[in-house]
């Protein structure tokens, strides 16, 4: 009987933990509802650079690598293919595309951490961009990290101001 009660207590604890995490995620979505809708993907031509496959790590408030943005599906980690076009960058995530127009692109860089995930020195390719009046960082861990320098050079040539 004692074993059954202990087992039920452990199951109840895990159910409460899962419910707390879900409630926290929903509260974060509610707090971030001020962010405008994502830009729609326009008609695209030919990519200006070879695509980069990898994992979309997430999006955070610029300068705060742990303040994950969860509205509009930006908080979900997913497989992605990144493509650079003359008019912007497309992160074609498994959960839905993220279009960053060139006019809204502030900078691109490598970093070691984003959205609570530490990936090692220069393990992430991070795009800093504007969504309305808010500046965000979106990160990708590419399968081919040797191409990061090429991506940074080509993207900066098409983007807005650099810091």
Strand and helix layout:
Layout (H helix, E strand, L loop, with lengths): L1 H30 L20 E10 L16 E8 L2 E6 L2 E6 L3 E7 L1 E2 L2 E2 L5 E8 L2 E9 L5 H11 L5
CATH top level of the largest domain is: Mainly Beta
Quaternary structure classification: single chain
CATH H level, superfamily name of the largest domain: Pleckstrin-homology domain (PH domain)/Phosphotyrosine-binding domain (PTB)
Number of helices: 2
Overall geometry: elongated
Based on the coordinates given, report the CATH architecture of the largest domain: Roll
Cα-based radius of gyration, to the nearest Å = 19 Å
Order of helices and strands: HEEEEEEEEEH
- How many domain units? 2
Descriptive account of the structure:
The chain is α+β, with helices and mostly antiparallel strands and 163 residues long. The chain folds into two domains: 1-31; 52-158, Pleckstrin-homology domain (PH domain)/Phosphotyrosine-binding domain (PTB) (PH-domain like). It is 25% helix and 36% strand. It has a seven-stranded antiparallel sheet, with helices on one face. The chain has a two-stranded antiparallel ribbon with strand order 6-7. Strand 3 and strand 4 (96-101) form a beta hairpin. The protein is elongated, with a radius of gyration of 19 Å. The model has no long low-confidence stretch (mean pLDDT 89).
């Amino acid at each position: 009987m004692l074993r059954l009660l202990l087992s039920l207590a452990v199951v109840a604890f895990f159910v409460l933990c899962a419910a707390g995490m879900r409630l926290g995620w929903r509260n974060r979505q509610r707090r971030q509802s001020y962010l405008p809708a994502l830009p729609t993907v326009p008609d695209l031509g030919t990519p200006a650079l070879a695509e980069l496959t990898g994992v979309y790590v997430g999006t955070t408030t610029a300068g705060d690598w742990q303040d994950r943005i969860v509205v509009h599906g930006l908080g979900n980690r997913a497989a992605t293919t990144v493509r650079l076009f003359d008019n912007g960058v497309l992160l074609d995530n498994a959960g839905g595309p993220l279009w960053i127009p060139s006019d809204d692109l502030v900078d691109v860089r490598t970093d070691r951490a984003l959205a609570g995930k530490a990936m090692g020195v220069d393990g992430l390719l991070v795009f800093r961009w504007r969504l309305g009046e808010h500046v965000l960082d979106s990160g990708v861990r590419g399968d081919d990290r040797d191409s990061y320098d090429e991506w940074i050079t080509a993207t900066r040539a098409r983007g807005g101001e650099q810091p």
